[in-house]
Amino acid sequence: IGFALAIPRRAAFSLFIQRHREIASRLIDIFLKLPDISTLIGVGSYVRDRVNVYLFQYAFTVAVQHRPDTTNVNLPSILQLFPDQFVDPSVFPKLREEGKVVTQKDRQVIDIPMNFTASDREDEQRLAYFREDIGVNMHHWHWHLVYPTSGPVEVIDKDRRGELFFYMHQQIIHRYNVERFCNLLGRAKSMHNFREPIVEAYFPKMVRTADSRPYAARPANFTLKDLDRDDEGFKFTITEMEQARDRIFAAIDAGFVVDKSGKRIPLDPKKGIDILSNLVEASDLSLNPQLYGNLHIWGHLALAYCHDPENRYLEQFGIMGDLATVQRDPGFYRWHSFVDDVLIRHKDHLDPYTSQELSFPGITVTGLNVNLARKNTPPNVLLTYWQRSQVDLAAGLDFGPGGNVLASFTHLQHAPFVYNIDVNNTNARPARGTVRIFIAPKADDRNLALKYGEWRRYVIELDKFAVSLNPGINKITRRSDQSSVTVAYNRTFRQIKTEQDIPNKDDLEQFQFCGCGWPDHMLLPKGTAIGMNFDLFVMISDYAGDRVGPEFNE
């Protein structure tokens, strides 16, 4: 493992840095090729005590999730392992005091302040509950564990991987912009001009406990600079970013990209978005990084190092350089609004879907409403509110204490609700369909009605599931907590237990589960105190055309 020692054990680790990705890929490959679980545990224990702590956690977790003999093994949450990436550092002295000085029965729950990065004078702070939400940031980290940018072929070369990169980040941008409307702010401005000052500041006030270095702040009106970071083995210019952008735009407009051999690869309706997304992201599946660059990665690095582009002050990367923290920064949403615009440009070149592609012969949705999951509530009225939850952070403290050390924080939550869908099947035989449910605002932050071309940029997926439809009228009832796009609330903020409280190993693994999905408590937009109008949209397609294999979640 000598190659892995090139990253110092207590140094910062970033998957946006090519050298770090390459080392992580080699380590993942080693873990994947070990013959059995026993050997994996032994080698893992040896490696853990010698390599960079963040590198090990990433590489080992990716390997566990992709080995056929460990697919059902659930690892502890990254929140419990590295709470410094999610929690206000000012609470750690209090947590350590509780853990070291106070006996278990007398320990108090330590409160994590809801707003600790800016005051109400900063308009962007209205979105702090979204950007700095623990579940939202864990979702982004975990998605990139399942779909790494680099690694062995069997890990990264997944069906429609690039398309899923596009869709996942697009949904984040849709959700963020809708939350902005809820707070009377306009949509995030796309970062098309790489030389324009970045109006939004961000002072994260986060500290990496591994090296006791803070994540650097970005004051208002900073501009992106050419990067020359010999210490990390990379350099590029803003001009190179502009060239990559323009070449990608030219490829989209021409309808093809050129691969490494000079062959033209068409950006057709079936595979085009997958090819283009891998190219823009600059994953290992990019067909020609020499020609089209590493646009998405360069953007993250330019934002992450704009405070010290030449290593003059020996500063490490900021929030935008760490997958577990990037969504805290308003700059993330500006950059990914641009990335989304690039990929939408390709979509706008395609012909519209035909009626045949969108229809499901004989199947018609005849009724739709939602109700809160309680008696005597009016239809089509949903409720959000603030909720306090607790999490055990003992495992992430240096020289961890015995027992639990609990922290409490405030987050958005919604009252449970139920979808009621009426579907008429006029066919003579049963049919199998895929139900998709979406929500979108009717108006923007100025209460101006959204036109369709605008409206589609704010549509949020709430659920997707398969259903059997008998001939005649079918009444479908679906609870909000059954959503296939979210991680269950009790798996993000679960009840704190000890191993002694859990009857068997399987239950312990379930307790330690950290799944990939949008956090359930953030399923609905916040809305406003006086109420906010949304469109609820349901469609049903033919399951036979949607099914991609046994992994389809019903």
TrEMBL record:
All residue ranges annotated as the Tyrosinase copper-binding domain in the record: 329-340
GO MF annotation terms: monooxygenase activity
Pfam families according to UniProt: Hemocyanin_C, Hemocyanin_M, Hemocyanin_N
Keyword Cytoplasm: no
Keywords assigned by UniProt, alphabetized: Monooxygenase, Oxidoreductase
Keyword Transport: no
SUPFAM superfamilies, A to Z: Di-copper centre-containing domain, E set domains, Hemocyanin, N-terminal domain
Positions of transmembrane segments: none
Protein name: Phenoloxidase 2
